[in-house]
Input
Amino acid sequence: MSDLSAYAYEVTELGREDGGGLLVTFPDLPGVIGIGETTEQAVADGRQALFAALDAFKAVDREPPLPGAVRLP
Output
């Protein structure tokens, strides 16, 4: 299993029209997100989603993207 702490994440504030709170995304794994009212909650939710995504790769015998493999423009 990959080290969860090796994956970088970004925290973005959601607008009121999107329900407010914070959104966590992982550039290396598009579509894996976390949400929460605080940074700590959003990061914890994101880590759970990241764990599930990495577990899904393992379940289908595929290697997940390496941390830092995706570079943002």
Remarks:
- The first strand starts at residue 10 and ends at 13.
- Helices lie at 39-59.
